[in-house]
UniProtKB/TrEMBL annotation:
Keywords: 4Fe-4S, Cytoplasm, Iron, Iron-sulfur, Metal-binding, Plasmid, S-adenosyl-L-methionine, Transferase, tRNA processing. The lineage of its organism: Bacteria, Bacillati, Bacillota, Clostridia, Eubacteriales. It is found in: Cytoplasm. Residues 175-405 form the Radical SAM core domain. It comes from Vescimonas fastidiosa. This is tRNA-2-methylthio-N(6)-dimethylallyladenosine synthase. Catalyzes the methylthiolation of N6-(dimethylallyl)adenosine (i(6)A), leading to the formation of 2-methylthio-N6-(dimethylallyl)adenosine (ms(2)i(6)A) at position 37 in tRNAs that read codons beginning with uridine. Its main location: cytoplasm.
Length: 470
């Protein structure tokens, strides 16, 4: 991919800042501050994108609300990974007909991965005529220009062209809170797993320049953020399009040189691009958490080939064994799909066997959901959903037993945790995270919110730890 075409020029991004000021002037002419609502579905990359959308809206003079009836602008940032998420979005879009009827000047925007799919954009065009603006992830950087067209042309605007994708630096951002931050290090995907829609809606892999990432993380560390998560559809493939060539481990080494009391996390990773060099870098770093989310998806080699996952069970185990060798305290999580088209019960139990062998700390588990436009959606899938549910239940019961047993090992230990939230449970009014990302419900002073504290673990269950501040 030609980097000159990927990196947007300062003139192109600067033009969007001019549109923000034009819209700000329109808002000021109306004599009141407009309210915007941004609703996010899906992954952390969507969360990061929404923070940029909020940044642009604030630059346009908007403040924010969670009340759709009060909002002048509503943005639904959508996910296309699961059918359930799409149904939720269409349910929300249907409900917005009532807010639009009360306030005909309300502007409703649909964006994100779901909006990029041609059949979804056409469905919105014909059946959800109250939606004013539809744009995909590749067009997010020009949101101010698209919104200005909605304001001035008084017509519906669609920007869902099939594009390989770009990188826009310097977009404004509104970060929620002052404890955790998301930093996108790359965009797009080249893997084309047979079940996944992401490469079709987010374009090809393109990496941000290392100096831009380092500068952003340095600024966040200087501002006192305690956890910074590096994002990409496959962070392990970072740098393949850069000249001179840098890989993800090189980036981590540079970031680890920064001063500050903060942890670096990253997601998501592809086993085909994971390396011993990466694990050595993690083990030697001051800032990088000993936490690894490495999606295996299946423990059956035949199913992995059908998924177009270019590794096998033996290679995955080799990676895990090495990572645990250099990081004995590693917290390991993964993704698994049960019921892939053509999968048999015996093959599903191979996956359960892998889970028993590896002993993940936690899993994100899914029953296969066909995504229109992907090869897997066209595969013969004779096994009924009820049968897949039985396999899924066996998988979940197996993992729950493992998680409960691994969590019980923390009891009696004192761990350095980031206290990051309040709960509705009077017994455990605060929550935090261990360095390995394990959830802790705890007792302590609210003044510790946003800070690291030593927590003595007093109890545990399948999903969480419980403790008190030392």
């Amino acid at each position: 991919m030609d980097r000159k075409q990927v990196i947007l020029s300062p003139e192109e991004t600067g033009r969007q800042r001019e549109y923000e000021q034009k819209i700000r002037a329109l808002h000021q002419g109306r004599g009141r501050t407009p309210l915007a609502l941004v609703d996010t579905f899906g992954c952390q990359q969507n969360v990061a994108d929404s923070q940029h959308i909020m940044g642009m809206l604030r630059a346009m003079g908007c403040e924010f609300t969670r009340d759709a009836d009060r909002a002048d602008i509503i943005v639904l940032n959508t996910c296309a990974i699961r059918d359930h998420a799409e149904k939720r979005v269409f349910g929300n879009l249907g409900a917005l007909t009532h807010t639009k009827k009360k306030n005909p000047d309300q502007i409703i925007c649909l964006c994100g991965c779901m909006a990029q799919r041609p059949e979804i954009a056409e469905k919105v065009r014909t059946s959800y005529r109250h939606v004013d603006l539809v744009f995909g992830p590749q067009a997010m950087w020009k949101f101010p220009e698209l919104l200005y067209r909605v304001y001035t042309r008084r017509g519906r605007v669609f920007s869902v062209e099939d594009e390989s994708g770009t990188i826009a630096e310097g977009m404004p951002i509104v970060r929620e809170g002052h404890t955790r931050a998301w930093v996108s290090i790359m965009y797009g995907c080249n893997n084309f797993c047979s079940y996944c829609i992401v490469p079709y809606v987010r374009g090809r892999e393109r990496s941000r320049d290392m100096d831009k990432i380092v500068a952003e993380v340095r600024e966040l560390a200087d501002q006192g953020f305690k956890e910074i998560t590096l994002l990409g559809q496959n962070v392990n493939s970072y740098g393949k399009d850069l000249e001179p060539r840098h890989d993800f481990a090189d980036l981590l080494r540079e970031l680890d040189k920064l001063d500050g009391d903060f942890l670096l996390r990253f997601m998501s990773s592809q086993p085909k691009d994971a390396s011993f060099k990466l694990f050595d870098t993690m083990a030697q770093s001051r800032h990088v958490a000993h936490q690894l989310h490495l999606p295996v998806q299946s423990g059956c080699d035949r199913v992995l080939r059908a998924m177009n996952r270019p590794y096998d069970r033996a290679r995955y185990l080799e990676l895990i064994n090495y990572a645990r060798k250099v990081m004995p305290d590693l917290v390991l999580t993964s993704d698994i799909i049960i019921g892939f088209p053509g999968e048999t019960e015996a093959e599903a139990m191979e996956t359960v066997g892998l889970v028993r062998q590896v002993e993940f700390d936690a899993l994100f588990t899914f029953i296969f959901s066909p995504r229109p436009g992907t090869p897997a959606a066209k595969m013969d899938d004779p096994v009924p959903r009820a049968e897949k549910q039985k396999w899924f239940d066996t998988l979940c019961a197996t993992q729950n037993d493992i998680s409960a047993r691994l969590h019980a090992r923390y009891v009696g230990k004192t761990l350095r945790c980031l206290v990051d939230g309040e709960t509705d449970d009077a017994r455990w009014p605060l929550s935090g995270r261990t360095a390995g990302g394990r959830l802790v419900h705890l007792v302590g002073d609210k003044s510790a919110l946003g800070q690291y504290r030593d927590i003595k673990i007093t109890d545990s269950n399948t999903w969480a730890l419980f403790g008190e501040m030392v």
